[in-house]
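Human: I hope this is not a bother. Would you mind checking the protein record under this note? Thank you for your patience.
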Amino acid sequence: MQDWLTMTAAALGRGIEAGEIGPAALTRCYLNAIDAHPLKDRIYTQVTHDRALAEAEAAQARADLGLRRSPLDGVPVSWKDLFDSAGTATESGSDLLKGRVPEQDAAVLRNATLLGAVCLGKTHMSELAFSGLGFNPIKETPPCVNDQEAAPGGSSSGAAASVAFGLAAAGIGSDTGGSVRIPSAWNDLVGLKTTSGRITLEGVVPLCLKFDTIGPLARSVEDAGLLLGLLEGTAGPDLRNPGSLKGCRFADLQNVAQNDLDPKVSAAHRDTLQRLKDAGAKIVPLEVPELEEAMALSPILYTTEAYGLWKDVIEATPDLMYAEILERFRTGAQFSGPDYVAAWAKLEQCRMAWDQTVAGFDAVLSPVSPILPPNLQRLQSDHDYYVQSNLLALRNTRIGNLMGLCALSLPTGTPSCGLQVLGLPDCEEALLRTGAAIEMALA
């Protein structure tokens, strides 16, 4: 049973299908592991024992009757603390929302529950999802699996930790500027950022509605595809036979994405590209000049919308917030309505230029993050270090959000050094197939 805590979600689902794993026993195994773990309170905000066991018993009955609803029916999953869950506090990592208990589940949680996923509970996150570091002195800061004195990546920090520490078969998070991919990379997981607008945000506490997306953090690309299906209420793509990389043509993004790389990140990226070449892929260095212009628009686009959504709540009790997050939100007050509209018009032009430049490639590659997980103690005491670390952590992943893409984070074999694979908008299935082939080449 201990092996269950490290198996992929897909493998657990196949075990249930074959009658080798019972959903009830599997869920009890995970709940016992959570309850016994010394870091559980830094990972989970709440563990929903009663709900999980009831859902597992129902999944067990369906399995016994041969009536399973999906490949992941009976598999235990964690949920970031910004997804509404009926009767369970959903506070988005902030004391501003302390005691907020929704009456019904978010749409994606309903979809997953209807298809048989077992809800283990809610996981910690960056305050109001507005940081790529996962450092949250207001609530809790989850651990990084590779360095417990370092930041775990955010904002889906607890989602990543729940999977990396064997306390969930998969985690569901959100990604506005990199919040699925950064914690996935720093904890050696697979993370999928979906295209903006593809998955409903009903019942999800917002940050920036034009950029907010939902996605899974998992142990394999196959898992990510099946979890995408759960979120959408479908079966998800079949990725069991992804094919090879022979004939694939990838762009290695040069400008922006490869500036100021940590030497370990740079070495891991070079090694990863070489392994992809050895597997038959052709890799072409690529620069997209418009990218610098798009990146410069980020402060206007993100902080204006975030502050616009949260201004009244924040300013009613600003002392409840961590000062660094409060300062970042308040930056949005500096920009006017015309500034915001003009920035979006310019971003659309940059997106068209990107689409034209990358049209001949199967995917665009870069390191997920140019830095390794920063030190938690220094983040707490050094303002400049916090600001610089947060900006660098989000820099490469934000490319995917600004350009309106879907994207994957894949482990490379070097701890906390993930590979970012950028696909085309609304082409998650093609991206996942490519990602599965890359995963095989890097195994």
Observations:
- The longest helix spans residues 337-357.
- The radius of gyration is 20 Å.
